[in-house]
Amino acid sequence: MESEYVASRWTRGNFLFPTRLRITDQSVVRRKRSWFSVNEETVNARNIANVNIRTGLIWSDIRIETSGGSDPLDSHGHSKSDAREFQKRVQELQARAGGTPQGAAAAAGDTRACPYCAETIKKAAKICRFCNRDLS
Ligand SMILES: [Zn+2]
Q1: Residue-range domains of the chain with CATH
Q2: What is the reported pLDDT for 101?
Q3: How far is the CA of 34 from the centre of ligand 1 (A)?
Q4: How far does the centroid of ligand 1 lie from the alpha carbon of residue 15, in Å?
Q5: Ligand 1 centre from 16 Cα, in Å?
Q6: What's the mean pLDDT in 2-20?
Q7: Residue 36: exposed, middle, or buried by beta-carbon count in 10 A (0-12, 13-18, 19+)?
Q8: Between 5 and which of 21, 85, 89, 94 could a Cys-Cys bridge form, CB atoms 3.0 to 4.6 Å apart?
Q9: What are the tens digits of pLDDT across the range 122-134?
Q10: What is the distance between the alpha carbons of residues 117 and 46, in angstroms, rounded to a whole number?
Q11: Region 12-19 average pLDDT
Q12: Which helix (H) or strand (E) holds 32?
């Protein structure tokens, strides 16, 4: 199942060719067109370290941090709800793609909501990976 998130045309650099973020079964693809070329970057879910959202007055910027030592992928000009949904989808994707016992546990529903920020975290977590608060 793929979903695509398109930046708003009314934001910087997106008027003619808005940036598109696509979530596939195993990866996130950022596609940015220009007049003469298409720039497409793919990050495997296993190499995604984190998805950060910076929300301004109207639009949200999405930053995908990678663990492979490559540059983070930025996309700006998304709606707040899109940005949050994108972040959630990527986290689900990470849980599925993890293949690790933790990933499997997360996929199996071994999670709870952080009491501080309400993000979904693992039951065994001692520190929230979203807000970094101590949960012990
Ligand atoms: Zn939290």
Answers
A1: 3-98 (2.30.29.30), 101-136 (no CATH)
A2: 46
A3: 39
A4: 35
A5: 38
A6: 91
A7: exposed
A8: 21
A9: 988 999 999 999 9
A10: 25
A11: 90
A12: strand 27-33
